[in-house]
Amino acid sequence: MILLTGGTGLVGSHLLVQLTEKGYKVRAIYRNRRNLEETRKIFQYYHHNDTSLWNMIEWVEADLTDYFSLEQALEKVTRVIHAAAMVSFNPGESDKMMAINSEGTANLMNACLSKGVQKVCYVSSISSLGKQLDNALVNEEVEWQPDSRRSAYSHSKFRAEMEVWRASKEGLPVVIVNPSVVIGPVNWKRSSGKLFYSVKQGMPFYTNGITGFVDVRDVAKAIIILMESDVLNERFILNGENLPFKTMFTIIAQELHKKPPFIKVSKPLTELGWRINLLLCFIAAKAPAITRDTARSAQLKSFYSADKFKNRFKFTFTPIQEAVKNTARWYQLNQ
After folding, report:
1. Domain count, the chain
2. CA distances from residue 61 to 33, 84, 266 in whole angstroms, order as listed
3. 282: burial class by Cβ within 10 Å (0-12, 13-18, 19+)?
4. Contact, 135 vs 98, CB < 8 A?
5. Per the confidence metrics, is the pTM higher than 0.70?
6. 44, 49, 182, 313: least CB-packed within 10 angstroms?
7. Residue 291 resides in a domain
8. Residue 230 is part of a domain; what is its CATH number?
9. Domain residues for 110?
10. What DSSP line would sit under 165-213, residue for residue?
11. pLDDT above 70 as % of the chain
């Protein structure tokens, strides 16, 4: 029995598809029953009207911040994939995000230790890795360093990783994956779907930023490979390609038959923009659309290497063009 947290998210929903395709017995945690419909749509996209795989999943209500609900969810479970997380760049949600991502992960690791779970895979993020100077490649050996430019999300994922490594020292077999920006079918008001939604609405702006992108199907496949392997107490970066934001937005625009971005936004302008947006949203009592963290990350140039995973498992990542096509195709069928 495998327990999956975050089954209604982008990575989690695709893990459920691939795990059930391979015949695994899966129990998935949810917090809000309304979100189950989004995961069902993912199954319908890949398997049309066949509900046999969907019916294989055992759904249980639990919360990472409720230790006892996690203990109950872990009954008769041998392996755990922890893909649940809160992603927010709204400063007002920092404490809540830390409670879910860091303290929630601590709860889950403690429950896994208590129940004698045989192996855990934690789905982390490239945001919990360090930075390199002179645009050098970031690999698994580049350690996270705290600084003023680190987002609250980055802090929360790093702290969560520390809880996983702490549990490993206490005897829990673990493995960690650090995906880059995950691209795949998802509600376009959530996760990386927001990139597609912005382009669809007509986004003329781009920045000089560069980061890594990876197909969600590759992330799910890689996690299953690691869970089936004898690899323990290691981390692996999962990254398909490093692309400028302008290139990525252009690829998306072409698939959606929209005009690519053509107005370059400088670093000083993004710094001014998030401050103005914050003030206007404060006056209107709304959550900011642009924050300090999102504005600054849009200008960062980071390059990530997935050579460790590729070489260890002879793995070939899907071109990002195909990941975008898959996501656009899903949206066209579900709009």
Report:
1. 1
2. 8, 13, 46
3. exposed
4. no
5. yes
6. 49
7. no
8. 3.40.50.720
9. 2-184+213-241+303-318
10. HHHHHTT--EEEEEE-EEESS--TTSTTHHHHHHHHH---EE-S-EEEE
11. 89
